[in-house]
Amino acid sequence: MASALYQELHRCFRYEDGKLHWRERPTKWPTARQGTEAGYIWTRPTDGTKRCVIRFQTKLYKRSRLVFYMHHDRWPEPTCDHRDRDSLNDRIENLREATYAIQSMNRGGHRGRALPKGILHRPHRNASKPYYVQIKHGGKHVEASYHPTLEVAIARADEVYAGLPC
User: Tens of pLDDT along 60-105?
Assistant: First the structure.
């Protein structure tokens, strides 16, 4: 049986392409118009990450968490991760339940860094294969290999990341 919150979310919102639209106007929020997209874009001041947040039942929620709840009748534990790293793409097929370790692996490389995450340029170690792929998971090395070109190294890193458990 569906929870009361699940039923209330479906009564108030309509899901469409990763967005939530007001279905029924809650009496406490006169600004919510039936049929309009719910929420607003909030930018995190520390790093500029953008998210859509929605005020519902006097609480502020990330839209991604509400979308996850509407499809699974439970909150994502411990967190909700965007597969494509686009924090505004809240399509259900782009959301997954993930641990904080998995979510941190899904981040891009450091800002200002020329190479993708997990790839180092080490021509002094191996001149014929200067690109080194080094990936850790759960505190252990799961990949450590040299590659002749950056493209080959990126392909290998993507392959390893895709094979890691969520």
Answer: 999 999 999 999 999 998 889 888 888 899 999 999 888 887 777 6
Question: Cβ(111)–Cβ(49) under 8 Å?
Answer: no
Average pLDDT, the chain: 86
CA 87, 93, 96, 101 torsion-angle sign: negative
141 three-state secondary structure: strand
User: If you search the block for the tokens 């782009």, which residue do you land on?
Assistant: 94
Structural domains present in the chain:
4-103 (3.90.75), 111-163 (no CATH)
Sign of CA dihedral 67, 72, 75, 78: negative
**pLDDT tens, position by position, 10-69:** 999 999 999 999 986 666 656 667 888 999 999 988 778 899 999 988 899 999 999 999
Tokens of 69: 């709840």
Question: What's the sign of the alpha-carbon dihedral 41, 45, 49, 51?
Answer: negative
CB 72 within 8 A of CB 92: no
